[in-house]
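MODEL INPUT / OUTPUT PAIR
PAIR INDEX: 1
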Amino acid sequence: VRHRLNDDWAYGNDPDARPWDFQAEECALRACVDRFNSRRYNSNAVRDPDFEPLDNCWTSVLGRQVELTEEFKHHYEIWLQQEVFSASVDWDQLLCTNVS
């Protein structure tokens, strides 16, 4: 894919190359990239919640206030027993840096 549609330098060494054959594909790719950029970075566009950027920074996520429901507060100790205390953790596997 050429950087710009008028960049023909990439095809200059090949006498059989016909860059105009790929123009339709390049235009379609450019349209998709432009649509992504406007959806992602244009602040005036109507935002689809499915395409909103996620905050993956652990410091800001852990610093957020979380509102717990009354039902969760009532059953908190049961949740701790079932989900935290009874779960076994293989710390060696967790701390292992090899990803296979």
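PAIR INDEX: 2
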Amino acid sequence: CLLRIYIAFQDYLFEMMLVVESVILKKLSGFPDSKIGPLQIRKSTEKFLLFLKEHFDQLFGKMEEVLLQLVLNIPRNVLLPEDKAHEQHPYSQEQFQALQDEIHQLQQQCRAEVAAGQALRAELEEKKGVQAELEKIVQWFDGLENICREHGTSSFKESFAFLTQNAKRLQEVLKDVEEKSKKIKKHDQFV
């Protein structure tokens, strides 16, 4: 309230000085032989404004004290509408501090829960990626099982055993072919 009053008085002071300056300029325009120019009038107006502002600040300080003591002071026996909650629910400084501590603790719990929620969301995203990979592996095993059924094996274990036996046979055939190839190369070298 006091700041608004101060600004209003100050604005009025500035406006008044502009009016005084324009009146002086009009009066001087009637005297063409005058040696005082608009620049000198502006400097003089600014000096006078500075002088008035310093005195105004001193006076406003005194006025502020009087306003705070006599006009804007609310007696202790007066209860404002916004203070009715304090009347209905009085509290001590210890109770207030206990509430502040509880608020601080609840804020920390909220932060911890938010962090935990973010961690759980990140873990869920990771699990979705792993689940997608597992689904690909299951599809691959289903494809293997379908191929094994087409070749006459009924269960996956039997199919896997069948594939293992076939792999071993292929390895033996590969070794056999490599040995024969080496023999053929040796025979070709001697010939």
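PAIR 2 NOTE: The longest helix spans residues 93-150.
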